[in-house]
Write a structure and sequence with these properties.
By secondary structure, this protein is of the alpha/beta class. It contains 15 helices and eight strands. GO terms for molecular function: alcohol dehydrogenase (NADP+) activity; butanol dehydrogenase (NAD+) activity; metal ion binding; methylglyoxal reductase (NADPH) (acetol producing) activity.
Length: 398
């Protein structure tokens, strides 16, 4: 196990009906808030109105900013930042999936600093992110997730897309940890089968990335990771078929929070190659992040099966019911088992199914290595994924 430091400062309020506490919690932090949310879902499901009412009843003044698109854009974040400043908001609340929560964090940073948000994006060509990250100062943030996927509700990261340059990358820092998150699994009952499945794949990926690429001697982390993967594997298909199954929704919600809160990966090191490769796809084609991850996984796992078969075999045995004793054979069976799991949630697809053009694969591979490689010329994984390797994974996934 590697040495590590871990801070998980976000207070977590979890459970059925807990969204009603939004007002009381916000009132402890601010008199006026910017409530950042998506363009459709929270209004349609009524949760936006519930949160607004709760805030108003607690005497908190609310400015609603409901323009966040899935894969949030820097220009939208900048507009939110301007409004937060002009209105004198003291707290930014992110209500929705990862996109509104990430946008809320970025708004909290730019409202205070006045910097355009695209300069914060890791790997951005301007190079400004090297001075701006990690974010040390921002307005306080509160999150209320309505979708189980990213873990953004209790971590210090966000992901933004700068449309003009097709750059998608992370922004993060200690100031972006939400002060409090209210996780009410009932808010996820209305998530479509497609986004439910994409979310399960996203949390699964957050768990296996470091598990496969990082330090192998990390016993506690292995057990934590495998337990959380099992929760996603078992409950993803249940929630896809039974949207109102509270226990399945609660399991997915809690697993997704724990998957990316730093806990399972502490002392592990490792890298996030799948995320680097996927972020470029969603930057170019505006696809769902979890869907892109599902499509790339089989081709990526084929490389892992060659490089570290014992790790993939272990995941298969402990999370997917693989019984084969030989590591190489077990690794291959794990890939098949993962594909079966994807099929059970209708996310076993190819890039061509999403309208991605073969002609753009080479450019995306180059961009992915540029942003994800941070000057090294490759993305770190179980092997160095240079442009040719990334292109080969894209082509295998086409
Ligand atoms: O468009 P709106 O109205 O927001 O509706 C959303 C959106 O269309 C809808 N939705 C959300 N909650 C719902 C609902 N529909 C019905 N009922 C509900 N309760 O679902 C769609 C997808 O929402 P989005 O927020 O985009 O999804 P997700 O949570 O998967 O977030 C994806 C974004 O997070 C980033 C991704 O790259 C992507 O930009 N990530 C953030 C991370 C982080 N902060 O730690 C890590 C992740 O790896 C990821 O990269
Ligand atoms: Zn992810």
């Amino acid at each position: 196990m590697l040495n590590f430091q871990l801070s998980m400062p976000t207070r977590i309020i979890f459970g059925r009906g807990e969204v009603e506490k939004a007002g009381a919690e916000a009132a402890k932090l601010a008199g006026k808030v910017l409530l950042v949310t998506g363009r459709t879902a929270t209004r349609k499901t009524g949760v936006l109105q519930r949160v607004v009412s709760s805030l108003e009843e607690a005497g908190v003044e609310v400015v609603v900013f409901d323009k966040i698109e899935p894969n949030p854009r820097t220009h939208t974040v900048d507009e939110g930042g301007r409004i937060a400043r002009e209105e004198g908001c003291e707290l930014i609340i992110g209500l929705g999936g990862g996109s509104p929560m990430d946008a809320a964090k970025a708004i909290a940073a730019v409202a205070l600093s006045g910097h355009p948000s695209h300069e914060y994006i890791t790997g951005n060509k301007t190079g400004r992110w090297k001075e701006l990250l990690p974010v040390q100062e921002a307005l306080p943030v509160m999150t209320i997730p309505t979708l189980a996927a990213t873990g953004s509700e209790a971590n210090s990261g966000g992901v933004l897309t700068h449309e003009a340059t097709k750059e998608k990358g992370g922004i993060g820092g200690p100031a972006l940890f939400p002060k409090v998150t209210i996780i009410d699994p009932e808010l996820t009952f209305t998530v479509s089968p497609e986004y439910t499945a994409d979310g399960a794949v996203d949390m699964f990926t957050h768990l296996y990335e470091a598990y496969l690429t990082g330090e192998e001697d990390a016993i506690v982390q292995d057990h934590l990771t495998e337990g959380l993967i099992r929760a996603a594997v078992e409950n993803g298909p249940i929630a896809v078929k039974e949207p109102n199954n509270y226990e399945a929704r609660a399991a997915l919600m809690w697993a997704s929070t724990l998957a990316l809160i730093g806990l399972a990966g502490a002392g592990r090191g490792g890298s996030f190659p799948m995320h680097q490769m996927e972020h470029t796809l969603s930057a170019y084609y505006d696809i769902s992040h979890g869907r892109g991850l599902a499509i790339l996984a089989p081709a990526y796992f084929k490389r892992v099966a060659e490089d570290r078969p014992h790790r993939l075999a272990r995941m298969g045995r402990n999370c997917f019911g693989v019984t084969e004793q030989d590591d190489k054979l077990a690794a291959e069976q794990t890939i098949i088992a993962v594909i079966e799991w994807f099929k059970s949630m209708n996310v076993y697809l190819k890039l061509s199914d999403l309208g991605i053009k073969r002609e753009s694969l080479a450019e995306m591979a180059e961009e992915s290595v540029r942003v994800g490689g941070r000057g090294m010329g490759h993305i770190a994984a179980t092997r160095d994924l240079d442009i040719q390797e990334v292109l080969a994974i894209y082509e295998d996934s086409f």
